[in-house]
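[Meeting: bench + compute handoff]

Bench side (C.D.) handed over the final construct sequence. Compute side (W.E.) agreed to return the predicted structure before the next meeting so the bench team could plan truncations. Sequence as handed over:
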Amino acid sequence: MENVLGDIRKGVSTRSQVSNFYGFTAFVSQIEPKTIKEAIVDKFWTLVMQDELNQFKRNEVWDLVPCPKGKSIIGTKWVFRNKLDKNGIITINKARLVAKGYNQEKGIDYEETYAPVARLKAIRLLLPFVSCLDFKLFQMDFKSAFLNGLLNEEVYVSQPPEFEDIEYSDHAYILKRALYGLKQAPRAWYEHLSKFLLEKGLSRGNIDNTLFTKHKGKDILLVQVYVDDIIFGSSNDIMCQEFSKLMHGE
């Protein structure tokens, strides 16, 4: 035992694990900033924040306009998180710009916040059902899902901290799509997602509104929605592939 180097309780460390560690650490920050002041001086976090704003541009989330008189401007803030793999190694730096939704007033900034969420009991029923039918379940996660939700209300937010437009510093953004932190964001996302699924031939459950199905002959496609996560599976692998391509394209 005295010839063994290191703690044997940690198991075997292979060369591939070491290469993965150095591969990740070469492209991610090893700190999780608490404030924007800490993040802005780190080149890795600056790139991540810029990528978040680029997604806003691609999704046409907002337009920069003069601040309207008599309208409340909702503040924005950055939220920073490090994602770890099963070995506790930091693999992704995640920066998200969120609205300070706690400043919103019902009847002024929003009307409805409710959005259906799959109950755990429904998922527990789904698992043995697909097991009996003997087909796989897949999980799909959406990057910046709430940015796909269209807003019915007129909402203005302040410019992102440390990314203000110098030439138009007195302007604010009017939102065309939902932003994380807004009280109506989950509702807007679900409305857009469900409308898209119904247009593509899926049927919504009468009892469970988060369950969508599609039949093709003897085959069935099941789609269970939980906010921005989707569990789906089919008795025909082709239907799964078609659904995956459909969602990816949208």
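W.E. noted at the follow-up: The helical segments are 15-25, 36-40, 43-58, 120-133, 185-199, 237-249. C.D. will use this when planning the next construct.
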